[in-house]
Description:
Layout: H1 3-14, E1 26-30, E2 33-36, E3 41-44, H2 47-50, H3 59-71, H4 82-95, E4 99-104, H5 107-119, E5 125-129, H6 138-143, H7 147-150, E6 159-163, H8 168-174, E7 179-184, H9 200-211, E8 214-218, E9 243-246, E10 257-262, H10 265-268, H11 282-297, H12 300-316, E11 323-329, E12 332-337, H13 342-351, E13 354-355, E14 357-360, E15 363-366, H14 374-394
The structure holds 4'-deoxy-4'-aminopyridoxal-5'-phosphate (PMP).
4'-deoxy-4'-aminopyridoxal-5'-phosphate binds next to helix 5.
Amino acid sequence: MTDNQELTQRWQGSLMNNYGTPRLPLVRGEGLKVWDSEGRQYLDFVGGIATNALGHAHPAIVEAVSKQIASLGHISNFFMAEPTVALAERLLQLFGRDGKVFFCNSGAESVEAAFKIGRLTGRTHMVATEGGFHGRTMGALALTGQPAKKTPFLPLPADVTHVPYGDAQALAAAVTEDTALVVIEPIQGENGVVVPPAGYLKAARAITAAKGALLVLDEVQTGIGRTGHWFEYQAHEGVLPDVVTLAKQLGGGLPLGATVAFGRAAELLQPGQHGTTFGGNPVACAAGLAVLDTIENDGLLENVKRQSEKLRDGIESLGHPLVDHVRGAGLLLGIVLTEPLAPQVQKAAQDAGFLVNAPAPDVVRLMPPLNLGDDEVDALLQALPGILGAAEGDG
Ligand code: PMP
């Protein structure tokens, strides 16, 4: 029996969150490279589902985390620690607005805090989008617009109207004076990298403002430089959200989420009304600071834009019949296929030494680290025709 097979059996025998399908066992990572237990190397364009902002084992994160765990690991929220405060201040500086930050450990938790802030408006109705994804905890799941993920768990704790994504008219019709919040992803990541029409976020801002509802932007997948802006909404003129939810690459591979609230939304949650033991953990926050510093010092927002264009142009100019077009922003890209062969492309890519992901039957998603290099983009572009051809043969 190989190492890989043995680990698969142990994984299936012991883990509840094994998703039911065999997984590739990875033992080591460095930058974009990862190795499996049999020593095979892959280029990781999944990036821990957009969590590895700087790739694997980045020296700045290793150093920040090592220093912090060696001096002060976890303290409870009876006390306070410098990295937690520093990260909150730094985030607010990047938003360029006064506000308050709630730290937690995941994207779903960051949405739960936004949900509670919504309830504190005194209103209960919420509006979210069809196909949207906000996490698997019960409040976040209620806002999620993917019925298959929700059905086994009904009833869910909210009065939520789901409207078609990108349709400002439908949104305007759904938001009333009883609506506490509207939650929107600036790009729907899990739904297959779906980009809304220009002006959608601006319209959502105007609609919510007119009805006194909070605008919550779920930037768990799009935030922290992923799209070439610190936050994707900053690419849209005239949009100032009331609440932004963050996680994924904020911690650079460590579990770290944040709910950032501005204006009246920042005052709704009173001290003691919400909390979590590990929220604001100094080690995770030290990693967060290292991520933000490195993005800034290494000019990674520019790199994201440059490599995004190179990938997009490179993939589209292959002129391969299986590729319709590439959509998304920055390094959150979806290769839209002309046939529903994304799972086959994922498999063929893995066989060729590239890790990609298939969020929809006809969409292959790329979300590599923000410091992706030219050689790595070239390697994928060179391998793609072979990968697409193998997928077609398999389909
Ligand atoms: N919101 C969005 C937009 C996401 O993409 C995700 C995760 N894919 C979540 C929330 C939930 O995050 P987590 O898995 O960390 O709970």
